[in-house]
Design brief:
single chain; 419 residues; mainly alpha; Growth Hormone, Chain: A; globular
Length: 419
């Protein structure tokens, strides 16, 4: 039976629905960030330079992004339980391939399979929660889902650095692959069969989804570049280059760099909670979600200026501020969806997600190419590359912000007004 407002948030439903999907998202985020700590070991064991390291780590994002388009159709056709459980077996295969790879091509292939395999871990969970929980509890459930993902990112920082003292990075990926299989089995066995919520018997195709209607709407392409570049930059840096900057520019050892990355991730989680509450309070006073998001994202440029300048004093505080303020990008998804008819909300969010993860792929790989131009004699890389690469991403964010401020001033044509 489909969840309605009359249902209570009982513990059995939390255990059978929320916990399995939350575990999947925990793994998804851990896979995304894991290379930030093991990057040094990968570079040494396989003789990888910064460009190669950036390429293989970014390989997670490209299949993740591209698969968002058919993912919605699969979730509607087969349900979140079967879709995510099946895809997680692909992630497990990718982890096993990565663990046994002895070439860059093998690493990239494994990383790409991981990205494909975890591509349903957030959207699949959101769809499952809509099906099984009352609408008035979804903000709490979805917020908890994001927090669990943040814990996955935390698990891929200092805990991974500690594990590396007892096992190799290959062993860690074998363990991660086994965990993905376990979660897939849990999803298949413990989560109840998906309730039949289909109201439209007409088979859907990518063409029938009206993606072009969304992509060509100025409300979308005015904010989409800012969201994609800001969030994509954060993903690229958090997932690999933050640790490298802390070790090469701030001259921290790996353990200390892992601690700073953990603090940054903790600040990101806190930002989801605090900024969400602030946004809710401001909305009562007539300040829109999008306005709050853009203001906070604008302030978030400041710690990036400090990082680009190579100022290493109080680096932990700077990176925590960057993480905390970066959480505002999630608000633009809700703010953008609010500007469209409800029938288009899913397509709006999916289209934005594709843009964001494509940007993360390009940013992570591109930063590697730039940083690779300034190798240091004693290993690592000079701050010139980080300054140029991070500075370029900062400049793109400023351009995207300027574009949004200009585009939003013009009145919408009548054909695009909210209906």
């Amino acid at each position: 039976m489909v969840a309605s407002s009359s249902h209570s948030l009982n513990s059995l439903r939390v255990v059978r629905v929320f916990v399995p999907f939350a575990l999947g998202y925990f793994l998804s985020y851990a896979f995304r960030v894991g290379n930030a700590i093991i990057g040094t070991d990968l570079a040494v064991d396989l003789d990888l330079d910064a460009a190669s390291l950036g390429l293989l780590t970014s390989a997670y994002f490209l299949p993740f992004a591209v698969f968002q388009l058919p993912l919605g159709l699969l979730l509607d056709r087969f349900g979140p339980r079967r879709t995510e459980a099946t895809l997680l077996t692909v992630a497990a295969a990718g982890a096993f391939l990565f663990a046994n790879a002895h070439s860059l091509a093998g690493l990239v292939a494994g990383r790409a399979l991981i990205g494909l395999g975890v591509s349903a871990c957030l959207m699949g969970a959101f769809k499952a929660y809509v099906m099984w929980f009352p609408a008035n509890r979804l903000p709490v459930i979805n917020g908890a889902q994001m927090a669990i993902g943040g814990l996955g990112a935390l698990a891929a920082t200092r805990p991974i650095e500690i594990l590396l003292q007892f096992m190799s990075w290959r062993d860690i990926f074998l363990l991660a692959g086994a965990m993905a299989l376990v979660v897939a089995i849990i999803l298949w066995i413990i989560v109840p069969p998906d309730p039949d919520t289909t109201t439209d018997p007409t088979p859907q195709t990518l063409g029938s989804q009206g993606l072009w209607q969304v992509l060509s709407d100025r409300r979308f392409f005015s904010i989409a570049p800012l969201t994609a570049i800001t969030s994509g930059t954060m993903m690229a840096i958090q997932g690999l280059w933050a640790t490298a900057w802390l070790m090469d520019v701030a001259e921290l050892d790996r353990a200390s760099a892992a601690n700073v990355l953990a603090a940054m991730t903790g600040a990101l989680i806190a930002g989801y909670l605090v900024i969400g509450k602030v946004t809710e309070a401001l909305s009562i006073r007539g300040i829109t979600t999008m306005t709050t998001a853009v203001v906070v994202m604008s302030i978030g440029l400041l710690p990036q200026v400090v990082i680009v300048a190579g100022i290493t004093h109080a680096a932990g505080i700077t990176w925590m501020a960057y993480g905390f303020l970066s959480s505002a990008t999630i608000l633009t998804y809700a703010g953008l969806a609010q500007q469209f008819p409800k029938a288009l909300a899913g397509r709006v969010i999916t289209a934005q997600n594709v843009c964001t993860f494509l940007c993360a792929f390009l940013a992570q790989a591109g930063l590697g190419l730039i940083i690779n131009q300034w190798p240091a004699i004693n290993g690592g890389y000079l701050d010139n590359g980080y300054r140029l690469g991070f500075g370029l991403m900062l400049a793109l964010q400023i351009i995207a912000l300027s574009w949004y401020l200009i585009a939003r001033r013009d009145p919408l044509p009548k054909s695009l007004t909210l209906r």
